[in-house]
Sequence to fold (171 residues):
Amino acid sequence: MIASLLLAGSVVAEVQLFSADGYRISHYRSPTPPRAEHAQTLDTAALQRLLAEQPRTQLIDVYRRPWLHGQFIEDEVHANLPGSLWLANTGDGELSEQWQGYFTHHLRQISHGEPAWPLVFYCRSDCWLGWNAVKRAHRLGYTNLYWYRDGIDAWQQAGLPLLPAQPVTLP
Fold:
């Protein structure tokens, strides 16, 4: 009986990592794959080249920010890459209709409705939110997608500037 109790106590419930649609839905801050399907993965040097060669490229930060009673709650100071649009919470694996609408609306607005507009999604290193956002943008028909895999952390480690940021409000 004691052996049964010890065995039962050592069994850990399996956590579902991905949704049926293939989005990462838990353990967002964990090692990420080397690439995201339908996107070119960038390191810092490649991102700098892209921004120099294609100045209309839009940087999109998808780092999370608590949302309560219809507003973002600033629980910590956040800074992102200069020129970024912060679409908070849009890298979550499962989005409500409201958050999906927020993502769709702002992508359409910044891309001027052009599916080939260059879009770079990022978060932090070992963060699945940018990976999810690339997948979501592809499903919306966007074709010129990039994933800055190590995000804010890599930019900062390279000694490049970050600017204080606030998320774009919901429409």
